[in-house]
Amino acid sequence: MTQKIWIFDLDDTLHNASAHIFPVMNRAMTQYIMDELSLDEAAAHQLRQHYWRIYGATLKGLMRHHGIDAFHFLEQTHAFMDLPNMVIQVKQLRHLLQSLQGRKCVFTNAPREYAMRVLNIMGIADCFELVFSVESTKFHAKPSIRGFQMLLKTLKTHPKNCIMLEDNLPALMTAKRLGMKTIWVTKKPQKPNFVDYRLNSVLALTYTHI
């Protein structure tokens, strides 16, 4: 019997990044755009949001339209965070992950070094056979289908064996289009038809029969 593969997003899925990490990261990205493209704060913020809406990742727009070096961008925007004091621990998460039957991986638009630091701080890095970061996708970040295809090739599996947990709807739309089961981690009450399940928290997987 083919094993299920659980594909977890990292930020705002496995842990709450919006509380402390995203505000700092967003300011760092805006500052980077101000410095590199000689824009004022309002214009830089607007451009960052614009690219995020179009591409699902600010970096993709900066690479495509401004020739920004991806590694430099990631280093500068993720380097100065005091992650041990910013990551919010999720009690029982390790127990949940260990109790899930099947293979488990992380698929994140974050850089690998940041992802590994967060997973190690949370004490769950060893629960995953693979951490597939934005570098792993050759910067074809979610929701780009190319990044998903690279992940599937690395895992040597078919989408129908995969269950994706995400807070980001465009990424779930790509996952569903490929044939994965989709779980939206959100507090929002309604779910679109390409989402199979909606959970308030990843911990609610304990009570979900999938």
How many domains?
A: 2
User: Structural class given helices, strands, pairing?
Assistant: alpha/beta
State the helical fraction. 40-55%
Main sheet characteristics: 6 strands, parallel
What's the N-to-C terminus distance?
A: 16 Å
The whole-angstrom Rg is: 17 Å
Shape: globular
Order of helices and strands: EHHHHHEHEHEHEE
Measured by DSSP, the beta-strand proportion falls in 5-15%
Strands in their spatial order, largest beta sheet: 3-2-1-4-5-6
Quick one: CATH superfamily of the largest domain?
Answer: HAD superfamily/HAD-like
For this structure, what is the CATH class of the largest domain? Alpha Beta
CATH topology of the largest domain: Rossmann fold
Kindly state the number of beta strands: 6
Task: Please work out how many helical segments DSSP would assign.
Answer: 8
Average pLDDT value?
A: 94
Q: Unreliable segments (pLDDT under 50, ≥5 consecutive)?
A: none
> Under the CATH scheme, which architecture of the largest domain would be assigned?
3-Layer(aba) Sandwich
State the gist of this model.
This protein has 210 residues and is α/β, with parallel strands linked by helices. It contains 8 helices and 6 strands.
